[in-house]
Amino acid sequence: MKKLIVSSSIATLMVLATGCVGPSGLIGGASAGLYTDVSGPLAVGTASGSSKVGTATSKGIILVATGDSSIKAACANGGITKIHHVDYHVTSILNLYVETTVTVYGE
């Protein structure tokens, strides 16, 4: 019984420590256990200017994530058909709350 409790406790701590919505994939970047607030470039397109801006955001709280922070959603929100460049911003608190925003600049 004691082994079951210890194993369950370790598994629970691992899930809470890593979170399920943390920065990953192309935007892996720097991540801290307590608080993370990072931004950076994600991609560059072929458009010659950046007169339009579109953003898309997704949020995760504990084990539930919602939203669409894709480049496609950001382009749709800004009416962008040609991408100049793409930036991202990730805020994470204890990996229990994570917010990712993708900003697309273009025409």
Give a quick rundown of the structure.
With 107 residues, the chain is α+β, with helices and mostly antiparallel strands. The chain contains two helices and five strands; from the N terminus they run H-E-E-E-H-E-E.
Radius of gyration: 17 Å
Please describe the biggest sheet, giving its number of strands, its sense, and whether it closes into a barrel.
5 strands, antiparallel
Order of helices and strands: HEEEHEE
The global form is elongated
- Name the strands of the widest sheet in spatial order: 1-4-5-2-3
Q: Runs with pLDDT <50, length 5+? A: 19-25
Residue share in helix: 10-25%
The total number of structural domains is: 1
Oligomer: single chain
Which class do the helix and strand fractions yield?
Answer: alpha+beta
Q: Could you explain how this protein is built, in words?
A:
By secondary structure, this protein is of the alpha+beta class. The chain has helices at 2-18, 71-78, and strands at 35-44, 52-61, 64-67, 83-93, 97-106. It has one domain. It contains 2 helices and 5 strands; from the N terminus they run αβββαββ. A 5-stranded antiparallel sheet has the order 1-4-5-2-3. Strand 4 (83-93) and strand 5 (97-106) form a beta hairpin. The longest helix has 17 residues, at 2-18. Residues 19-25 have low confidence and may be disordered.
